[in-house]
Amino acid sequence: MDKPDLLSEVFASLRLTSDLYFRADLAGPFAVEVPAERRLVRFHYLRRGSCWLRSPAAETPLQLGEGDLAILPNGSAHVLADDPARPALPLAELLAAAPPDDSGLLRHGAGAGRVELLCGFCQFDEDIEHPVIASLPAMMVLRPQDLGAAPWTLAALRLLGLESELAGEGMQAILSRLLEVLFIQALRQSGAEPETAPGYLAALADPQLSKALAAMHREAARDWTVGELARLAGMSRARFAAAFARRVGLAPIAYLTRWRLMKARRLLRESGLSTQEIAARCGYASLPSFTRRYKAAFGIGPGAYRRATKTP
Question: Which residues neighbour 203 within 8 Å (Cβ) at sequence distance 6 or greater?
């Protein structure tokens, strides 16, 4: 049987989408504070020049060079500056004084030196909490010189730069899709080695834990026990339960419950199946039990959610 693509399944259920804030042309001394915002993954692509990125979530400021892509996964506040020690102006004040023009270009400052940035974001379904998001590092950076072993990521990063320079029709749609591609590629790279990968990505890279995760995704309706999942992973029950909880951040059955509800949410939104059939496909023996669990998780019943998400 082909290995399931769990990361794609997760992001499809999270409804990953991206967009651009603006292009920024900054000159002379500058420092801009970007506020915290829940559930957003921020991107800053340095098209030209160099600058510093500092964040309370990171130990030290990070210098970005031309062609680098900085990714801040958890909506944390951060500062972009020409000098890591420079006091910052809140982004809202900068935008109020000089909003982006009709082409989406933000100009700020004057003097020697010039920095050009492409700033964007990815967002997710606000009501879904999945371990892949909770386990992400405070900051990730893709640098062209570090991507020799990942030519596919390097190609996407270069295309991002070329497309931003072209600035033709459809640019925003293309750049938005490229940001999604690069975000997932960055996650895939960070999860390549179980020993160094963060949280859930480490579980996906682990040859034993990944078997249990694949089984839960493949047969979400099955009445799994921790013992059965441990046998699939080739581990004792106690060792499996401890390793799974340490890597994933949830106990095995708690993860299964969360995945079932995520799957149900996607089916309610995208399929024509009845609510009864969706409940059965997601491991619930009765519609009332499914309805109670769904409402407890999301604050809205499955029927009301379906009606709210259907296009008129």
Answer: 194, 209, 210, 213, 244, 247, 248
Backbone angles phi, psi at 27, to 5 degrees: -130, 155
Burial track 81-106 (b if 16+ CB lie within 10 A, e otherwise) = bbeeeeebbebeebeeeeeeeeebeb
CATH architecture of the region 206-309: Orthogonal Bundle (1.10)
Q: Give the alpha-carbon dihedral of 168, 171, 172, 173, to 10 degrees.
A: 130
Per-residue pLDDT, averaged over 14-38, amounts to: 88
Domain with CATH 1.10.10.60 in the chain: 206-309
Q: Which of 199, 202, 228, 201 is nearest to 216 (CA)?
A: 228
- Please give the CATH superfamily to which domain 8-190 belongs: Jelly Rolls (2.60.120.10)
User: Quick one: pLDDT at residue 3?
Assistant: 57
CA 65 – CA 51 distance, rounded (Å): 7
Instruction: Note the pLDDT tens digit of each residue in 246-261.
Output: 999 999 999 999 999 9
- Written as one letter, the residue type at 97 is A
pLDDT in tens, 54-67: 988 777 899 999 99
Contacts of residue 88, Cβ cutoff 8 Å, sequence gap at least 6: 31, 32, 33, 79, 81
Q: List where CATH 2.60.120.10 sits in the chain.
A: 8-190
Residue 296 scores a pLDDT above 70: yes
- Give the predicted TM-score (pTM) of the model: 0.82
Round the average pLDDT of the chain to a whole number and report it. Answer: 88
